[in-house]
Amino acid sequence: MIETVSLYKTFGDLGVLRDISERIQDGEVVSIIGPSGSGKSTFLRCLNLLEVPTSGSVFFDGVDLTQKGIDIDLYRQRMGMVFQHFNVFPHLTVLENVTLAPVMLKKRSKADAEDYGRQLLARVGLSDKAAEHPRRLSGGQKQRLAIVRALAMDPEVMLFDEPTSALDPEMVGEVLAVIQDLVKNGMTTIIVTHEMGFAREVSTRVLFMDEGQIAEQGPPEAIFNHPQNPRTKEFLGKVLR
Amino acid sequence: MFTNFVPNIGRVLSKYWALFLQGAGYTLLLSFITVLFGTVLGSILALMRRSQNKLVSGFASGYVEVIRGTPLLLQLYLFYFMLPELLPMLNLSKFACVSIALVINSSAYVCEVVRAGIQAVDYGQTEAARTLGLNARQTMLRIVMPQAVKNILPALGNEFVTVIKETSLASTFFVGDLMTQYSTVRGSMYLVIEPLVVVGVIYFILTFTLSKAVNAFERRLQVSD
């Protein structure tokens, strides 16, 4: 479904991504782990061209998103993304946050979008907040809203960029539960995370990134129990105890 | 000279209160026109400055730099003499010429206000909107601008205060504003200080009230954050 071919990204002299060729299949749940500065987030952000790769290609559903003249907005509608800092829209109500894009981009009528929005909000336990403004929500609630906002577009894949890193510890669980629920329902998911327990539990595959490359990858049991690469061992030794 | 100061003020006021009132009206009208159209033009310039097109953004930058780097009085003279020559068929009144000069001047300052207001909106908002599939225009109109307005409005109020004071320069061309009325009264009563004080007090009342109102408005916006 998503494939990168010799992806490079440099910021000035800094090579953040160095030759990443990777394929993510329909229905996969891929966790990307690794030390900070290893290029995890940049890699994820290249998949929907929030970061424009310096060279290389990103294929989505067989289409090269990096080719000139492509309408990237159309493809972004099919890829949901959730950010570390939620980025919910503070000037809109919770329900408006959810319905804005589907209505604007003509995926649904207003009534239909509100209906669907309420269903989704109910699914993540935010039904009673529909008319509130996001400033009244806790961090965990904001992130659940951000997930629903993305889901309202019926994406084919969800990208999560450290979705729990900005949360108070007691709110991490509620957000992970929502992601887990998505995964269980078969959503193709790519998640950059520091939650090793979660990555181990939900992923079908784990990518370990180091210095702009995928240093090691495999099923979670293999990566977490029998890491081969010394850098993976070192990293896991630090974060798991 | 000052022995008659208070009685003179009384005389000036009782004789010319209507003229001062009219002057205050013109000053407010001129300021209002300036800020209103200055805001429209300034917003367009701000968007132009953000354009990907180098020619468009370059033009807007140049415009802002030139206007802000030259005196308003000079611009007033320039437009006052140049506009009727350039566009004789429009038969522009001097009030119109002066207004246009003020609008052009103000738009350069408003452009920077709007630009700062837009830049103050967290870039994450833009990223979130773009990942949903909104294009750059939709993102600006529906996500960034509504939030930027909160930053921009108080600054625009302050621009209004500044413009009220700056319109006094327009009196060079006798357009009926407060300062023009001062000249009229001075000429007819042979008093210099007293009408000046009266006009000064009126200016102060206008700007002080307005800036207090802006502050109150700003506090309300912050509460709703």
Descriptive account of the structure:
The complex is a heterodimer of chains A (241) and B (225). Chain A is 37% helix and 25% strand. Chain A contains nine helices and ten strands. Chain A has a six-stranded mixed sheet, with helices on both faces. In chain A, strands 2-1-4-5 form a four-stranded antiparallel sheet, with helices on one face. Chain A starts with a strand and ends with a helix. By secondary structure, chain B is mainly alpha-helical. Chain B is built from eight helices and no strands. The longest helix of chain B is centred in the N-terminal third of the chain and has 45 residues. Chain B is flat. In chain B, 33% of the residues are buried. Chains A and B meet through helix 2, strand 6, helix 3 and helix 5 of A and helix 5 and helix 6 of B.
List the helices and strands and how they pair.
The complex is a heterodimer of chains A (241) and B (225).
Chain A lengths: L1 E10 L2 E11 L4 E5 L6 H8 L7 E6 L2 E2 L7 H5 L2 E4 L11 H11 L5 H14 L15 H13 L5 E5 L7 H16 L3 E5 L3 H7 L2 E6 L2 E6 L1 H6 L4 H10 L2
Parallel strand pairs in A: 3-8, 3-9, 6-7, 7-8
Antiparallel strand pairs in A: 1-2, 1-4, 4-5, 9-10
Helix pairs in contact in A: 3-4, 3-5, 5-6
Chain B lengths: L4 H45 L4 H15 L3 H15 L7 H26 L3 H10 L3 H31 L11 H12 L3 H31 L2
Give me the count of strands of chain B. Answer: 0
Largest sheet entry of chain B: none
C-alpha-based Rg of chain B, rounded: 21 Å
Main interface by residue count: A-B, 25 and 18 residues
Determine the N-to-C terminus distance of chain B: 55 Å
Mean of the pLDDT scores of chain A?
Answer: 94
Gist?
The complex is a heterodimer of chains A (241) and B (225). With 241 residues, chain A is an alpha/beta fold.
